[in-house]
Amino acid sequence: MLPEGCDGLQKGCSKIENITENQHYVWQHYLGAWRTPRKIWCKRADQPEPFYTNTRNVGSERFFYEFKELSLEDLAYIEHVISASQDQELQDVNRKWVEFFQRTFVLRRELETKEINANSRIELEVQLRGAEKMLGEKFHGGVESSAIPILDELRRGSSQFHTDPDKCSAFIIFLCFQYFRTAKLRNAMAVIDHNLPHDMRRTWPIEAFIYATNVGASLYRQRLGYRVIFLRNTSNTPFITADQPIINLRGVAEDALDFYYPLSPYLAIIYTGDSERYPHDTLQASAITVETYNHRVYSNSEIQIFGNDPEYLKEISNLPKII
Q1: Residue 320 has what DSSP assignment?
Q2: Sign (positive/negative) of CA torsion 144, 148, 150, 153?
């Protein structure tokens, strides 16, 4: 998984010309399926009424993917996370993530020992700061671009791509990074009590890459046992999505996972290896079924849910969350 992603990062590290402050953790292209006709409806937990907005205004934070320099304690914690895997090759891949995303800080320290004129030093510092702010954004943009034809195929009700190892890999990479890249996962991890001291604000941007890599590698090894299940909405109740658009229906207590991913108001998928629970490749989703999955999405959201029906968003947001 690493070489393909790092190719784009290597190029991006050479010169950062355009700095994107508003960085999305929910893909705008994905949210476009809920447009009515040009904007979507959003219901925030801290606001009483849904509002009609452009996709660029939601599912994002200022410099969300910015990397910070890790302290020695942070590095020890990250190494502990990496070494929890028994797969030596996977450990090596994840250590390369750390090395790559900390490279600007190493370069900065090396530059302190060099004789460079003031203007050049200022320019180099601008480029280093730009890389720290933008490398994560550029990586996820590349993953999303690779997923466009896959998402289009899924929305046509086809999963033929899954038989192609390269396309299947791109699909799994997309799912895993979209799952782990969100504010919901970051904030949930921040409140967990860890034995090793570290600053989650510094470690999480790299941790998210490590967890996505580990889960992605596991899913790819098991891909022949996994299938895409289509849920076709036959009711008048639309599927909704949220600022945590992909959820694990199994929860964290189980080793297996079933990724649920709504694709539009009318279609959703489950990516699963459980043929007993899901014996059919296509399921007709009644209003009760749609309501059930929508409540799971709402319960797993951080602060925003999205849809094409403002009254329905308001109605579901009045329910208690059940985790």
Answers
A1: P
A2: positive
- When pLDDT is cut at 50, 70 and 90, the band that residue 255 belongs to is confident
Condensed to tens digits (0 to 9), the pLDDT of residues 190-241 reads 888 888 999 999 999 999 999 999 999 999 999 999 999 999 999 999 999 9
Q: Are the C-beta atoms of 103 and 70 separated by less than 8 Å?
A: no
Query: In degrees rounded to 5, what are phi and psi of residue 85?
Result: -75, 140
Phi, psi of 215 (to 5 degrees): -65, -40
The per-residue DSSP string of 244-279 comes to: S-SEETT-TTSSS--EEEEEETTEEEEEES-TTT--
| Nearest alpha carbon to residue 146 among 120, 167, 126, 177 | 167
Q: Which residues of 34-54 are buried (b: 16+ CB within 10 A; e: fewer)?
A: beeeebbbbbbeeeeebeeee
Residue-wise over 183-196: b if at least 16 C-beta within 10 A, else e? bbbbeebeeeeeee
Answer yes or no: are the C-beta atoms of 28 and 274 closer than 8 Å: no
Smallest CA-to-CA distance from 179 within 214, 221, 228 is with 214
**Cis peptide before 37, with omega less than 30 degrees from 0?**
yes
CA end-to-end span of the chain: 32
- C-alpha angle 256-259-260 in degrees, rounded to nearest 5: 140
Contact 212, 257 (CB under 8 A): no
How many residues does this entry show for the chain? 323
